[in-house]
Amino acid sequence: MKAFHSNHADLALPDGHRFPAQKYRLLHDRLANELPEVRLLPARRASDGELALAHLPDYIAAACGGSLSAAAMREIGFPWSPALLERARHSVGATMEAVGWATREGIGANLAGGTHHAFANRGSGFCIFNDVAVAARLAQDDWHRRRAELLKVAVIDLDVHQGNGTASIFAGDPSVFTLSIHGEKNFPFRKEPGDLDVPLPDGSGDDSYLAALERALAELHDRFEPGLVIYLAGADPFEGDRLGRLRLSYAGLRERDRRVFEWCWGRGVPVAFVMAGGYGHRIDETVQVQFNTFGLALAYWKRWSGVQGRVPGACTISDGAASGTQVDPRQPVALERL
User: Fold this and answer.
1) 116 belongs to the catalytic site
2) Exposure string (b/e) for 54-90, b if CB count within 10 Å is 16 or more?
3) Class (C level, CATH) for 2-337
4) Residue pLDDT, tens place only, 75-110
C-alpha cells in the first residue's frame, strides 16, 4: 500500500506552538518500523494550477507570496514562512498522489492532509489549502479526460470538527457529496451546510457515534453513487484528545474505520484516506489512533490486491461485505484475519 508524506518539507513552527507537528514524524517512523508493507513515499509539490482547482488565484498568490494580512494569518493559526507554504503545497500533493493510487490499487494514503477548514479564498484553523478539494477536482478532471465520464466523489469527513471549507467549496456541486460527523458545539462555531451533516453532543461515546455513522452511511448509499471516496480519518474524536470533546475509545475508532473501509470495499469504490486532526494530551495516543487506521487500511488493500483487474472501472466487486471476517473492535487488528 502506498502512503505519501511531506516530512521532507519541514512545517517550521516556532518552539512552543500548540500545533503538534511532531505527530507526522512519529507516525512515519512507526509505520516504517512496524508496517513495512506500507510503502512510504515523499509527496510531490502541488502547482499553482492544481491549487487553482479549488482556490482563487489571488488567494494562492497572497498565501505563497507572504502578503496575507496579519488577521488572515491569525485565522490560519500559523506564522507565515516560505517553509510553511512549501509544506502546505506538498501536503496537497500527498493527497493528490493518494487519490491517484487509490484509483489504481483500491486504497491510497496521506500521512497528513485533511485541511478541511480552508476555503476557496482564505485559510482557517491550521489549514492553508484544501487538499481534499484540490485532489477531488483533479481526479474528476483526469477521469473525464481519460474516459469522457463524470467521476462522482464522496467526502466522508470524520474529523471531530466540521469540514466547513470543504462544504463551502462544493456547495451546489452535485458531483461531490460531503458527509461530516462532528461535534455540535466544537469549532468551527459557524458551520457551513454540507450534503449530510451529523452534529453530536459533547461527550458522545462509541455506541452513539457508531450508530450515527451507520445511519449516515446508509443515507449516503441511498442518495449518492460515488466512484471515489476521500476519507478524513481524524484522530480527534478520541477520548484523550484535548480539543475533541467526544469520548471514543481505541476500539470505537477502529470500528469506525472498519465500517468506512467495508462500505467502500462492499461497493467496489476506491478510497483515499488522510489523517486530518489529532491533538492528544499525549501525542503517542494520537499516533496510535492513526497507526490503527493504517493497519486496518493495509488489510483492505490486501483484499483489493487479490482482485483480478482491480482498477476501478475495469472490475466490479460483488461479494463485498460477505467476504472476510469481521474485526472485533475490542481487539488489535490482525491483518491475516481480513
Assistant:
1) no
2) bbeeebbebbbeeebeeebbeebbbebeeebbbbbbb
3) alpha beta
4) 999 999 999 999 999 999 999 999 999 999 999 999
